Amino acid sequence: MNKKIPFSPKNKITRIFLFVMLCGSFTTLFAQTNTYTGATGGNWSVGTNWSLGLSPIMAHDVVIPDNKVVVIDVTSAFCNTLNINTGSNSNDVKVGPNTLTIAGTLTINSPTAANKNKIVSVTSGTLNCGAIVMGNSATGTEDCRVTITSGIL
């Protein structure tokens, strides 16, 4: 014979608390920033190049700091958002012959020094993203660019 345990207000509060904590854990687990360090070269696929210790997944908000070159070296790379930071040096994210899919926004912030560039180069690959936001040049000698050679945007 099964004995039912009554559903008391105390049990209800405990269950709601546990549910909220569980949901918060999933948000923390899946909505993370993964910053490129370039510790072991320039390849996207190398986990030791990233702050989380693994190459980005679709749920990661990717940050590329100033003065970094990143090569998309896997057939299909993914992230939630991609933000190329401002700074006094150039950056280049090289897509091709592979595909980079950004679920949300690609943000390319302006360089802060003259004759420096923040670039996403699409050679023979494909760049998919929800939107592109580019910073403004302070003096006209700094560029934010998406260059397409024979690739697809």
Can you give keywords for this protein?
153 residues, 4-stranded parallel beta sheet, globular, mainly beta, 1 helix, 6-stranded parallel beta sheet
Report on the structure:
By secondary structure, the chain is mainly beta. The chain has one helix and ten strands, in the order H-E-E-E-E-E-E-E-E-E-E. The strands form two sheets. Strands 1, 2, 4, 5, 7 and 9 form a six-stranded parallel sheet that branches. Strands 3-6-8-10 form a four-stranded parallel sheet, with no helix packed on it.
Shape field:
globular
**Which assembly state applies to the chains in this document?**
single chain
The H/E string reads: HEEEEEEEEEE
Based on helices, strands and strand pairing, what is the structural class? mainly beta
The termini sit apart by: 65 Å
How would you concisely characterize the structure shown here?
Helices cover 14% and strands 36% of the residues. The protein is built from 1 helix and 10 strands; from the N terminus they run αββββββββββ. Strands 1, 2, 4, 5, 7 and 9 form a 6-stranded parallel β-sheet that branches. Strands 3-6-8-10 form a 4-stranded parallel β-sheet, with no helix packed on it.
